[in-house]
Amino acid sequence: MMSIKMNCIAKVSEAFVWYKSTTFYWYIAKKTSLLFSLIMLVSGGSMEFINYQPTKIVFGKNKVDSLAQYALEYGQKAFVIGPVLCEAIQPLLARIENILSKKMTFQTFYQVESNPSIRTVDAVVKMMRDFEPDVVIGVGGGSVLDVAKISSILYGNKQYTWDFLFDTFNDFRKHYEKMTNRLPLLAIPTTSGTGSQCTQACVLTDTDKLKKTIFHQDLYATLAILDPTLTLSLPPAITKATAFDAFSHCVESFLRSENPICNLLAKEGIKKVTKNLPLVLKENRIEYREELMLADTFGGISLSNCGAMLPHPLSEIIGSYTNICHGEALAIVYPPFLHHTLQKYQKKYAALARYLFPTRKFSDEIDAAKCFIEMVDTFMQECKLNKHISDYNMDQDTIDHIHMFITNLHLPMESEETIENILKEIWSEKER
After folding, report:
1. pLDDT digit string (tens) for 230-277?
2. pLDDT in tens, 415-426
3. Which residues pair with residue 140 across a beta bridge?
4. Terminus of the chain with fewer CB atoms < 10 Å: N or C?
5. What is the rounded CA–CA span in Å between residue 406 and residue 422?
6. Domain covering 235-432 assigned CATH 1.20.1090.10 in the classification
7. SS3 readout for 386-407
Protein backbone atom coordinates (compact mmCIF):
# COMPACT_ATOMS: atom_id res chain seq x y z
CA MET A 1 0.00 0.00 0.00
CA MET A 2 2.83 2.38 0.88
CA SER A 3 4.45 1.92 -2.53
CA ILE A 4 1.13 2.68 -4.21
CA LYS A 5 0.83 5.87 -2.19
CA MET A 6 4.36 6.95 -3.06
CA ASN A 7 3.75 6.24 -6.74
CA CYS A 8 0.66 8.40 -6.60
CA ILE A 9 2.61 11.18 -4.93
CA ALA A 10 5.29 10.95 -7.60
CA LYS A 11 2.75 11.08 -10.44
CA VAL A 12 0.93 14.08 -8.95
CA SER A 13 4.21 15.85 -8.29
CA GLU A 14 5.62 15.17 -11.75
CA ALA A 15 2.44 16.52 -13.32
CA PHE A 16 2.87 19.70 -11.31
CA VAL A 17 6.50 20.15 -12.27
CA TRP A 18 5.82 19.71 -15.96
CA TYR A 19 2.91 22.14 -15.96
CA LYS A 20 4.32 25.30 -17.48
CA SER A 21 3.71 27.82 -20.26
CA THR A 22 5.53 30.86 -21.46
CA THR A 23 2.38 32.93 -21.38
CA PHE A 24 0.89 32.19 -17.99
CA TYR A 25 0.80 34.16 -14.76
CA TRP A 26 2.19 31.76 -12.21
CA TYR A 27 1.32 32.30 -8.58
CA ILE A 28 3.65 29.68 -7.19
CA ALA A 29 2.16 29.89 -3.71
CA LYS A 30 -1.26 29.01 -5.07
CA LYS A 31 0.10 26.13 -7.13
CA THR A 32 2.14 24.73 -4.28
CA SER A 33 -0.89 24.92 -2.03
CA LEU A 34 -2.79 22.76 -4.54
CA LEU A 35 0.08 20.30 -4.72
CA PHE A 36 0.25 20.23 -0.92
CA SER A 37 -3.42 19.31 -0.69
CA LEU A 38 -3.04 16.50 -3.22
CA ILE A 39 0.04 15.13 -1.50
CA MET A 40 -1.69 15.13 1.87
CA LEU A 41 -4.70 13.39 0.37
CA VAL A 42 -2.72 10.46 -0.99
CA SER A 43 -0.32 10.25 1.96
CA GLY A 44 -2.98 9.99 4.61
CA GLY A 45 -1.99 13.29 6.19
CA SER A 46 1.27 12.03 7.65
CA MET A 47 3.58 14.46 5.87
CA GLU A 48 4.60 17.75 7.48
CA PHE A 49 6.43 20.69 5.90
CA ILE A 50 6.22 24.43 5.27
CA ASN A 51 6.66 26.00 1.85
CA TYR A 52 6.53 29.76 1.37
CA GLN A 53 6.74 31.76 -1.86
CA PRO A 54 4.90 35.12 -1.86
CA THR A 55 6.39 36.55 -5.06
CA LYS A 56 4.04 36.87 -8.02
CA ILE A 57 5.85 35.48 -11.05
CA VAL A 58 5.13 36.59 -14.60
CA PHE A 59 6.92 34.33 -17.07
CA GLY A 60 7.18 34.61 -20.84
CA LYS A 61 8.87 36.05 -23.89
CA ASN A 62 8.76 39.88 -24.08
CA LYS A 63 6.84 40.16 -20.81
CA VAL A 64 9.12 43.06 -19.91
CA ASP A 65 7.10 45.15 -22.38
CA SER A 66 4.29 45.10 -19.79
CA LEU A 67 6.52 46.58 -17.08
CA ALA A 68 4.76 49.94 -16.89
CA GLN A 69 1.40 48.22 -16.53
CA TYR A 70 2.61 46.36 -13.45
CA ALA A 71 4.53 49.29 -11.99
CA LEU A 72 1.50 51.58 -12.20
CA GLU A 73 -0.32 49.30 -9.77
CA TYR A 74 1.89 50.79 -7.07
CA GLY A 75 2.13 54.46 -8.06
CA GLN A 76 3.38 57.04 -10.55
CA LYS A 77 7.06 57.26 -9.60
CA ALA A 78 9.60 54.48 -10.09
CA PHE A 79 13.22 54.17 -9.03
CA VAL A 80 15.18 51.94 -11.42
CA ILE A 81 18.34 50.18 -10.22
CA GLY A 82 20.74 48.60 -12.71
CA PRO A 83 24.35 47.48 -13.11
CA VAL A 84 27.34 49.56 -14.07
CA LEU A 85 26.71 50.66 -17.63
CA CYS A 86 28.38 48.65 -20.36
CA GLU A 87 27.73 48.01 -24.02
CA ALA A 88 25.85 44.75 -23.37
CA ILE A 89 23.32 46.16 -20.90
CA GLN A 90 22.70 49.61 -22.40
CA PRO A 91 20.09 48.54 -25.00
CA LEU A 92 17.99 46.82 -22.34
CA LEU A 93 18.13 49.74 -19.93
CA ALA A 94 17.20 52.09 -22.77
CA ARG A 95 14.27 49.79 -23.52
CA ILE A 96 13.19 49.89 -19.86
CA GLU A 97 13.37 53.69 -19.82
CA ASN A 98 11.35 53.95 -23.03
CA ILE A 99 8.63 51.66 -21.60
CA LEU A 100 8.38 53.66 -18.38
CA SER A 101 8.63 57.12 -19.95
CA LYS A 102 5.25 56.73 -21.65
CA LYS A 103 3.42 56.08 -18.40
CA MET A 104 5.30 57.40 -15.34
CA THR A 105 8.13 59.43 -13.83
CA PHE A 106 11.33 57.61 -12.95
CA GLN A 107 14.86 58.04 -11.62
CA THR A 108 17.78 55.69 -12.39
CA PHE A 109 20.86 54.37 -10.60
CA TYR A 110 23.16 52.40 -12.89
CA GLN A 111 26.21 51.84 -10.68
CA VAL A 112 25.74 48.45 -9.03
CA GLU A 113 28.97 46.48 -9.17
CA SER A 114 29.57 42.74 -8.95
CA ASN A 115 29.61 41.70 -5.29
CA PRO A 116 27.94 45.00 -4.28
CA SER A 117 29.07 46.80 -1.15
CA ILE A 118 26.99 48.37 1.58
CA ARG A 119 28.35 51.75 0.41
CA THR A 120 26.56 51.24 -2.92
CA VAL A 121 23.32 50.53 -1.07
CA ASP A 122 23.79 53.67 1.03
CA ALA A 123 24.18 55.72 -2.17
CA VAL A 124 21.03 54.17 -3.66
CA VAL A 125 18.95 54.81 -0.56
CA LYS A 126 20.09 58.44 -0.38
CA MET A 127 18.98 59.04 -3.98
CA MET A 128 15.69 57.25 -3.33
CA ARG A 129 14.88 59.42 -0.33
CA ASP A 130 15.50 62.53 -2.41
CA PHE A 131 13.28 61.23 -5.24
CA GLU A 132 10.52 59.65 -3.06
CA PRO A 133 9.47 56.80 -5.38
CA ASP A 134 6.35 54.67 -5.11
CA VAL A 135 7.99 51.50 -6.42
CA VAL A 136 11.50 50.09 -6.89
CA ILE A 137 12.52 48.26 -10.07
CA GLY A 138 15.66 46.12 -10.16
CA VAL A 139 17.00 45.20 -13.62
CA GLY A 140 20.05 42.96 -13.79
CA GLY A 141 21.72 39.97 -12.22
CA GLY A 142 21.74 38.84 -8.62
CA SER A 143 23.89 41.74 -7.43
CA VAL A 144 21.44 44.32 -8.78
CA LEU A 145 18.40 42.50 -7.43
CA ASP A 146 19.97 42.16 -3.98
CA VAL A 147 20.68 45.90 -3.88
CA ALA A 148 17.11 46.63 -4.99
CA LYS A 149 15.69 44.29 -2.33
CA ILE A 150 17.52 45.77 0.62
CA SER A 151 17.07 49.34 -0.66
CA SER A 152 13.29 48.89 -0.79
CA ILE A 153 13.43 48.19 2.94
CA LEU A 154 16.00 50.75 4.05
CA TYR A 155 14.23 53.58 2.21
CA GLY A 156 11.53 53.90 4.85
CA ASN A 157 13.44 52.48 7.83
CA LYS A 158 16.21 54.88 8.87
CA GLN A 159 16.55 53.11 12.21
CA TYR A 160 18.21 50.02 10.67
CA THR A 161 21.99 50.01 10.89
CA TRP A 162 24.18 47.56 8.99
CA ASP A 163 25.41 45.97 12.21
CA PHE A 164 21.81 45.44 13.27
CA LEU A 165 20.81 43.93 9.92
CA PHE A 166 23.78 41.57 9.70
CA ASP A 167 23.60 40.51 13.35
CA THR A 168 19.82 40.11 13.59
CA PHE A 169 18.53 38.67 10.32
CA ASN A 170 20.82 35.68 9.84
CA ASP A 171 18.47 32.67 9.78
CA PHE A 172 16.76 31.76 6.52
CA ARG A 173 14.22 29.59 8.35
CA LYS A 174 12.95 32.26 10.73
CA HIS A 175 9.86 34.33 10.00
CA TYR A 176 10.85 37.70 11.38
CA GLU A 177 8.60 40.51 12.49
CA LYS A 178 7.28 42.42 9.49
CA MET A 179 9.20 45.52 8.45
CA THR A 180 7.15 48.70 8.05
CA ASN A 181 7.31 51.19 5.19
CA ARG A 182 8.75 48.72 2.70
CA LEU A 183 8.40 49.84 -0.90
CA PRO A 184 6.96 47.44 -3.52
CA LEU A 185 9.74 45.78 -5.50
CA LEU A 186 9.65 44.61 -9.13
CA ALA A 187 12.52 42.26 -9.99
CA ILE A 188 13.61 41.78 -13.61
CA PRO A 189 16.50 39.29 -13.80
CA THR A 190 18.78 39.40 -16.82
CA THR A 191 20.64 36.21 -15.90
CA SER A 192 19.47 32.68 -15.12
CA GLY A 193 21.18 31.51 -11.99
CA THR A 194 21.07 33.60 -8.85
CA GLY A 195 17.41 32.96 -7.97
CA SER A 196 17.40 36.34 -6.21
CA GLN A 197 14.04 37.27 -7.77
CA CYS A 198 12.31 34.65 -5.61
CA THR A 199 14.38 34.44 -2.42
CA GLN A 200 14.38 36.24 0.91
CA ALA A 201 18.16 36.63 0.91
CA CYS A 202 20.45 39.54 0.18
CA VAL A 203 24.23 39.09 -0.15
CA LEU A 204 26.40 42.18 0.33
CA THR A 205 30.04 42.97 0.89
CA ASP A 206 30.70 44.64 4.23
CA THR A 207 33.39 47.21 4.94
CA ASP A 208 35.71 44.35 5.92
CA LYS A 209 35.34 43.05 2.32
CA LEU A 210 33.57 39.90 3.46
CA LYS A 211 30.31 38.76 1.92
CA LYS A 212 27.45 38.70 4.40
CA THR A 213 23.86 37.57 3.99
CA ILE A 214 20.67 39.11 5.33
CA PHE A 215 17.50 37.00 5.48
CA HIS A 216 14.01 38.41 5.91
CA GLN A 217 10.65 37.51 4.39
CA ASP A 218 10.14 41.15 3.38
CA LEU A 219 13.13 40.81 1.05
CA TYR A 220 11.01 38.73 -1.32
CA ALA A 221 10.22 40.69 -4.47
CA THR A 222 6.62 41.78 -4.83
CA LEU A 223 6.61 40.82 -8.50
CA ALA A 224 9.17 39.10 -10.71
CA ILE A 225 9.05 39.49 -14.48
CA LEU A 226 10.90 36.52 -15.97
CA ASP A 227 11.54 37.26 -19.62
CA PRO A 228 13.96 34.75 -21.19
CA THR A 229 14.61 37.08 -24.15
CA LEU A 230 16.59 39.29 -21.76
CA THR A 231 19.19 36.54 -21.37
CA LEU A 232 19.84 36.01 -25.09
CA SER A 233 22.69 38.54 -25.11
CA LEU A 234 24.50 36.99 -22.14
CA PRO A 235 28.07 36.01 -23.03
CA PRO A 236 29.02 32.34 -22.58
CA ALA A 237 31.11 32.96 -19.45
CA ILE A 238 28.24 34.61 -17.56
CA THR A 239 25.74 32.08 -18.90
CA LYS A 240 27.87 29.23 -17.55
CA ALA A 241 28.60 30.79 -14.18
CA THR A 242 25.01 31.77 -13.43
CA ALA A 243 23.56 28.47 -14.65
CA PHE A 244 25.96 26.59 -12.40
CA ASP A 245 24.79 28.73 -9.51
CA ALA A 246 21.21 27.61 -10.24
CA PHE A 247 22.41 24.01 -10.44
CA SER A 248 24.09 24.33 -7.03
CA HIS A 249 20.95 25.83 -5.47
CA CYS A 250 18.99 22.82 -6.62
CA VAL A 251 21.56 20.25 -5.47
CA GLU A 252 22.11 21.79 -2.05
CA SER A 253 18.46 22.38 -1.25
CA PHE A 254 17.75 18.77 -2.26
CA LEU A 255 20.49 17.49 0.04
CA ARG A 256 19.26 19.59 2.93
CA SER A 257 15.53 19.01 2.99
CA GLU A 258 12.69 16.52 2.70
CA ASN A 259 10.22 19.16 1.56
CA PRO A 260 8.46 17.32 -1.32
CA ILE A 261 7.66 20.48 -3.28
CA CYS A 262 11.22 21.76 -3.19
CA ASN A 263 12.67 18.32 -3.83
CA LEU A 264 10.65 18.02 -7.02
CA LEU A 265 11.54 21.51 -8.16
CA ALA A 266 15.21 20.89 -7.32
CA LYS A 267 15.39 17.61 -9.25
CA GLU A 268 13.74 19.16 -12.27
CA GLY A 269 16.02 22.20 -12.01
CA ILE A 270 19.11 19.97 -12.02
CA LYS A 271 17.73 18.16 -15.06
CA LYS A 272 17.05 21.40 -16.92
CA VAL A 273 20.50 22.89 -16.27
CA THR A 274 22.49 19.78 -17.13
CA LYS A 275 20.48 19.28 -20.32
CA ASN A 276 20.15 22.84 -21.59
CA LEU A 277 23.40 24.57 -20.62
CA PRO A 278 25.52 22.45 -23.02
CA LEU A 279 22.90 23.06 -25.72
CA VAL A 280 22.75 26.84 -25.32
CA LEU A 281 26.55 27.09 -25.37
CA LYS A 282 26.45 25.45 -28.81
CA GLU A 283 23.38 27.26 -30.13
CA ASN A 284 21.87 30.34 -28.49
CA ARG A 285 18.17 29.45 -28.84
CA ILE A 286 15.31 30.95 -26.85
CA GLU A 287 13.95 27.48 -25.98
CA TYR A 288 17.13 26.66 -24.07
CA ARG A 289 17.10 30.07 -22.39
CA GLU A 290 13.53 29.47 -21.23
CA GLU A 291 14.51 26.18 -19.62
CA LEU A 292 17.48 27.74 -17.84
CA MET A 293 15.32 30.57 -16.50
CA LEU A 294 12.82 28.02 -15.18
CA ALA A 295 15.67 26.09 -13.57
CA ASP A 296 16.87 29.31 -11.96
CA THR A 297 13.39 29.93 -10.54
CA PHE A 298 13.02 26.35 -9.31
CA GLY A 299 16.40 26.64 -7.60
CA GLY A 300 15.55 29.98 -6.00
CA ILE A 301 12.26 28.71 -4.59
CA SER A 302 13.95 25.56 -3.27
CA LEU A 303 16.84 27.52 -1.79
CA SER A 304 14.57 30.01 -0.02
CA ASN A 305 12.67 27.20 1.71
CA CYS A 306 15.44 24.66 2.32
CA GLY A 307 18.73 26.54 2.47
CA ALA A 308 22.19 25.90 1.06
CA MET A 309 25.00 23.54 2.02
CA LEU A 310 28.75 23.82 2.43
CA PRO A 311 29.67 24.81 -1.17
CA HIS A 312 27.92 28.16 -0.83
CA PRO A 313 29.74 29.57 2.22
CA LEU A 314 33.04 28.18 0.89
CA SER A 315 32.56 29.84 -2.49
CA GLU A 316 31.44 33.12 -0.92
CA ILE A 317 34.56 33.21 1.24
CA ILE A 318 36.77 32.48 -1.77
CA GLY A 319 34.95 35.23 -3.67
CA SER A 320 35.43 37.67 -0.78
CA TYR A 321 39.23 37.34 -1.01
CA THR A 322 39.48 37.17 -4.81
CA ASN A 323 37.87 38.44 -7.99
CA ILE A 324 36.44 35.01 -8.78
CA CYS A 325 32.72 35.31 -9.46
CA HIS A 326 30.27 33.29 -7.39
CA GLY A 327 29.40 30.69 -10.04
CA GLU A 328 33.04 30.03 -10.89
CA ALA A 329 33.94 29.71 -7.20
CA LEU A 330 31.14 27.16 -6.83
CA ALA A 331 32.53 25.21 -9.78
CA ILE A 332 35.89 25.06 -8.01
CA VAL A 333 34.33 23.77 -4.80
CA TYR A 334 31.82 21.27 -6.20
CA PRO A 335 33.96 18.33 -7.42
CA PRO A 336 35.78 17.89 -4.10
CA PHE A 337 32.54 18.46 -2.17
CA LEU A 338 30.69 15.73 -4.09
CA HIS A 339 33.54 13.24 -3.84
CA HIS A 340 34.14 13.77 -0.13
CA THR A 341 30.44 13.55 0.79
CA LEU A 342 29.63 10.47 -1.31
CA GLN A 343 29.12 8.22 1.71
CA LYS A 344 27.14 10.75 3.74
CA TYR A 345 24.70 11.69 0.95
CA GLN A 346 24.76 8.39 -0.89
CA LYS A 347 20.98 7.97 -0.72
CA LYS A 348 20.36 11.51 -1.99
CA TYR A 349 22.86 11.25 -4.85
CA ALA A 350 21.35 7.91 -5.82
CA ALA A 351 17.87 9.46 -5.91
CA LEU A 352 19.11 12.18 -8.23
CA ALA A 353 20.71 9.61 -10.54
CA ARG A 354 17.48 7.63 -10.74
CA TYR A 355 15.53 10.79 -11.56
CA LEU A 356 17.97 11.86 -14.27
CA PHE A 357 18.40 8.37 -15.74
CA PRO A 358 15.02 6.66 -15.19
CA THR A 359 15.71 3.76 -17.58
CA ARG A 360 19.21 2.96 -16.36
CA LYS A 361 19.68 -0.14 -14.20
CA PHE A 362 21.93 0.32 -11.18
CA SER A 363 23.50 -2.56 -9.29
CA ASP A 364 22.95 -0.86 -5.93
CA GLU A 365 22.64 2.52 -4.24
CA ILE A 366 26.37 3.28 -4.26
CA ASP A 367 26.46 2.55 -7.99
CA ALA A 368 23.65 5.06 -8.55
CA ALA A 369 25.29 7.67 -6.32
CA LYS A 370 28.60 7.36 -8.18
CA CYS A 371 26.69 7.71 -11.46
CA PHE A 372 25.36 11.12 -10.37
CA ILE A 373 28.80 12.36 -9.41
CA GLU A 374 30.27 11.10 -12.69
CA MET A 375 27.48 12.85 -14.56
CA VAL A 376 28.33 16.13 -12.83
CA ASP A 377 32.02 15.71 -13.70
CA THR A 378 31.14 15.06 -17.35
CA PHE A 379 28.70 17.98 -17.45
CA MET A 380 31.28 20.37 -16.02
CA GLN A 381 33.92 19.22 -18.49
CA GLU A 382 31.54 19.59 -21.42
CA CYS A 383 30.69 23.16 -20.38
CA LYS A 384 34.32 23.96 -19.52
CA LEU A 385 33.37 24.58 -15.91
CA ASN A 386 36.05 22.24 -14.56
CA LYS A 387 38.28 25.05 -13.35
CA HIS A 388 40.87 24.78 -10.61
CA ILE A 389 42.00 27.43 -8.14
CA SER A 390 45.39 27.50 -9.88
CA ASP A 391 43.68 28.83 -13.02
CA TYR A 392 43.13 32.13 -11.22
CA ASN A 393 46.74 32.95 -10.31
CA MET A 394 46.03 33.08 -6.59
CA ASP A 395 49.13 33.58 -4.47
CA GLN A 396 49.95 31.22 -1.61
CA ASP A 397 49.47 33.89 1.06
CA THR A 398 45.87 34.40 -0.04
CA ILE A 399 45.26 30.65 -0.09
CA ASP A 400 46.70 30.31 3.42
CA HIS A 401 44.56 33.22 4.66
CA ILE A 402 41.36 31.76 3.19
CA HIS A 403 42.20 28.31 4.56
CA MET A 404 42.77 29.65 8.05
CA PHE A 405 39.62 31.77 7.95
CA ILE A 406 37.42 28.86 6.85
CA THR A 407 39.00 26.47 9.35
CA ASN A 408 38.37 28.91 12.23
CA LEU A 409 34.73 29.37 11.29
CA HIS A 410 33.79 25.82 12.35
CA LEU A 411 31.06 25.59 9.71
CA PRO A 412 28.38 23.26 11.11
CA MET A 413 27.27 21.78 7.77
CA GLU A 414 30.00 19.12 7.63
CA SER A 415 32.60 17.63 9.95
CA GLU A 416 35.92 19.42 10.40
CA GLU A 417 37.63 16.44 8.79
CA THR A 418 35.43 16.63 5.69
CA ILE A 419 35.98 20.38 5.35
CA GLU A 420 39.73 19.94 5.73
CA ASN A 421 39.78 17.21 3.06
CA ILE A 422 37.76 19.39 0.69
CA LEU A 423 40.08 22.34 1.25
CA LYS A 424 43.16 20.19 0.67
CA GLU A 425 41.75 19.08 -2.66
CA ILE A 426 40.79 22.63 -3.64
CA TRP A 427 44.38 23.81 -3.07
CA SER A 428 46.00 20.71 -4.58
CA GLU A 429 47.21 20.19 -8.13
CA LYS A 430 44.65 20.01 -10.93
CA GLU A 431 44.66 16.28 -11.33
CA ARG A 432 42.66 14.33 -8.77
Report:
1. 999 999 999 999 999 999 999 999 999 889 999 999 999 999 999 999
2. 999 999 999 999
3. 189
4. N
5. 11
6. yes
7. CCCHHHHCCCHHHHHHHHHHHH
